[in-house]
Task: structure prediction
Amino acid sequence: MADKEYDSIEDLIGDLQNAVDDSLNTEVTQTVKPVMEQAIQNTVYDVYNPKVYIRRGELGNPKNINATVENHELSIENDAPVNFDYDTSQGIGMPLADQVAMGVGYAYMSMPPRDFYKTATDYLESNNLIAAAIADGLIRQGFDADES
Result:
């Protein structure tokens, strides 16, 4: 923090780690979730119109895209429920998001992988959005930071 003086490097590191976690939970999550939603739209929904099942839209539903921060690491999980009205026995125990991304779990048809995780990750990396979001969060908390 700009005006705070530290008696030890450990105190500085502790405050910085807490600030990074807060940034991951706030600015980075707010950046990643809409990118994930758009990646699902572009990589999953826009490339295929189902003929065998009725699309529910759960994969792209923002309420199913959840973030957790643990040990200074952000995890984004898509918790869209599997539609048990159709035979997904090929992917028993596998989350719907993973079945779609890997192209597995469809007993009634063959589907290619539609890896929206990679689409989102590539976009975030190529546009330096994670570093920018962390920098924004650190600045919000009083640290001097930039995205480079």
About this structure: The mean pLDDT is 89. Strands lie at 65-70, 73-78. The CA atoms of residues 103 and 113 lie 4 Å apart.
